[in-house]
Structures are given as C-alpha cells and as structure tokens.
Design brief:
The protein has two domains: 95 residues, Aspartate Aminotransferase, domain 2; 127 residues, Aspartate Aminotransferase, domain 1 (Alpha-Beta Complex), CATH 3.90.1150.10. The protein is elongated and about 55 Å long. The N and C termini lie far apart (48 Å). 35% of the residues lie in helices and 17% in strands. 37% of the residues are buried. The chain has eight helices and eight strands; from the N terminus they run αβαβαβαβαβααβαββ. Helix 1 packs parallel to helix 2. This is DegT/DnrJ/EryC1/StrS family aminotransferase. It comes from Streptomyces carpinensis. Keywords: Aminotransferase, Pyridoxal phosphate, Transferase.
Length: 231
C-alpha cells in the first residue's frame, strides 16, 4: 500500500503535520500533500542519511500526526528510536524503503563495497552500519561542497567510471515545498555525496578502474581560497 493510502487509512488529513526527510525523493512529501496534510522536514543522521530521531522529536508539534522514515541507500533508519517517539507523542510511524536489489546480489554488493572501502583514498567511504545492503555505495567528496563534488564526478566520468549524484536538490529546496528551515546535515549531504557503482555484475577489472579513477585525483588542492581537483 502506498504512503498516501496508509496515511489516509490512519485518519491523517487536513490540519495535520507529518514529519518527513528532505534528503531523498519527492514522493513522500507528495503523498503527505495528497491527503491534505503538511510535510514538515527534519534533518538526517549524517552516517545513515535517514531521519535523525533527535531532529524528528524537535519537529513534533501539537499538530503532528505521523512520521515517515525512509531507509536510504541500503541503510536502515533508527526505527526503534522513531517508534519510541511515536509512542511518547501518539504518532503513526511509517517505514518506506528504496527498491531493493535481489537477495542473491547482496553478498556480491557487500564484497565490492568492502573492496572499495579498503582501497579508496581522498573520499570518505560509507559507514557500514548494521546490515548495510549497499543499494548505493555513497561516498563523501572533501573540499568546498557542491563545486568540488561536481568537479570530482566529472573527472571520474572522464576516466570511464559511471557515477551519479544521489540527491541533487533536497525536497525543502524545491519550489513546491520551499521551506525556511535549518537542515545542515541534509544540505551538507546533498552537496558532498556521490554514488559509485557496486553492481553485482562488475568485474575485478572494473572495480580496479573505479579505484584508480578516484585515487588518481588525489583529493582537493587548495589554490588561494578555491579548492580544485588534480587530474
């Protein structure tokens, strides 16, 4: 059942608020508006990229009716803490997940992620956490945020490695959901993250190419007040 249907079935509607993440796809916020409620954006945990329970609790008001947690990149949200918040405040807590790779692919994805973890330099590799399935292998590119991350991505692609920015614009920055709200971890993640391939079909040679392409850049080189990537 979709998010909107679950919210509607629980009686969430006009005048209610629903706490959701801004880091990710717009579908969850859209589902909240479909039932007439207001999406309220809370910040994320920088390691899991899922809702930060402390930020969720701070966002709760007398009008809050529900929380929608989204499991991100193969990491799970802290559902125990979120359900505890739900119990304290009488809130519905929903969990939404991204599309999962077939179960037989997970060991191969984890093997490839471990290979990258051990060899990548100049980027911050993912926090493996508890049960990470690596639906996406998301690294942080150091430097001055989005300009350096985008330059790094262009340079990696030029070396024949497919990579992509997982969240180009946080939902609270989209015109239809623009909010004056402080979400520093969401903003930082949107500016620094880059997804590298870990598909189960990748060969050892392709994995070596990913490592060589990333490591050849050597991280940001500061020139004056500007960081650029060596190529």
């Amino acid at each position: 059942m979709g998010t909107a249907a679950l919210l509607r079935a629980a009686g969430v509607g006009f005048g209610d608020e629903v706490v959701v993440p801004a880091f990710g796809n717009v579908e969850v916020a859209d589902a909240v508006t479909q039932v007439g409620a207001l999406p309220v954006f809370a910040d994320i945990d920088p390691a899991s990229y899922c809702l930060d329970p402390f930020a969720v609790e701070a966002a709760v008001t007398a009008r809050t009716a529900a929380v929608v947690a989204v499991h991100r990149f193969g990491r799970s949200a802290d559902v125990a803490a979120l359900h505890a918040i739900g119990q304290r405040h009488g809130l519905l807590v929903l969990e939404r997940g991204e599309s999962e790779a077939p179960h037989e692919e997970m060991p191969q994805r984890r093997e490839r992620a471990a290979y990258l973890d051990a060899r990548l330099r100049g980027v911050r590799t993912p926090d493996a956490g508890d049960g990470h399935t690596y639906q996406q292998y998301v690294v942080r590119v150091p430097g001055n945020g989005r300009p350096d991350r985008d330059a790094f991505a262009r340079a990696v692609r030029a070396r024949g490695v497919d990579c992509r920015v997982p969240v180009k614009t946080p939902v609270h920055r989209l015109p239809e959901f623009r909010r004056c709200v402080a979400l520093p971890e969401t903003e930082r993640a949107a500016a620094e993250t880059l997804a590298l391939p870990v598909d189960a079909s990748l060969t050892r040679r392709e994995m070596q190419r990913i490592v060589s392409a990333c490591n050849a850049l050597g991280g940001p080189i500061v020139v004056g007040n500007t960081a650029v990537f060596g190529v």
